[in-house]
Amino acid sequence: MVRIGNIELGNFPLLLAPMEDVSDPPFRALCKANGADLMFTEFISAEGLIRDADKSLEKLDIYDYERPIGIQIFGDKIDSMRKAAEKAEQANPEIIDINYGCPVKKVACKGAGAGILLDLPKMQAMTKEIVDQVNIPVTVKTRLGWDEKNIKILEVAKRLQDAGIQALTIHGRTRQQMYKGTAKWEFISDVKDSPDIHIPIFGNGDIDSPEKALEFKKRFNVDGIMIGRASIGNPWIFNEIKHYLETGQKLAPPSLSEKINAVKKHVSFSVEWKGDRKGIYEMRRHYTNYFRGIPNFKPYRNKLVQLESQEEIIDLLDEIETTFVNELSLA
Fold first, then answer.
1. What are 169-180's pLDDT values in tens digits?
2. For tag attachment on the chain, is the N or C end more exposed, with fewer CB atoms within 10 Å?
């Protein structure tokens, strides 16, 4: 049984990655319903949080059915991160997660996210301040290092464990790689297999199928895996992986009707949570992913991203279902 503090996550938990503009409550609801064991919010700016910025406060919204859930924060100032952790704890999550992995320039080049991997003493000091501030488990998500010449992930893991974190997720790329190339899970395995490491180690990067999940579980001995980009438009991946790990059999992919039903739920919750205008606008980034692989779908996708009311979107989704189900039945 994998535990983070007193939180039981099962024998091989599947985690939903904290993805900006993706891992919001509407998307998390679908992932939870489809087997995610532990989820995280989008990352939240410490400076925004302590200044009560609306965008940052909005990301604190969590729902009971999501539990257990972690709130992820990022920043480059130790005092701000400590205060932000205190404020995040007031939203009553199970976990506070620290982002030491974001590679984007506006974050990393200011010393936050993966940028702190260039200053390990500061990273350790910041982490300890946060651990000492809150009364719930603190976890971290990070990368292998800044670049190929500065892969110090085992030292990072030891420092973070000494600072008091209770689990570590490692993305198997450097900051310099961004999301390109191949994730190097061998370094993640080195951390997991180290006799000095006693906390759960979760691997992240390139898991996009049940087969790969099983392969990486066997090869790299991690305690669980975190799914990121492969879940976008595909919240079913969590149950697909679980079924494959348990039975060795692949679940049938979701039908078009199941996909459309999921999109309807996603749209409805998005509008409920964000309001009509913002909810509909922010759904537009998801349609391509939900309907990827369907031939001749582009005209419908172009219509979906132009509609401005939930009713119009639902009507078009019904039309899509009727059209494509009939085409498939005639094929």
1. 999 999 999 999
2. C
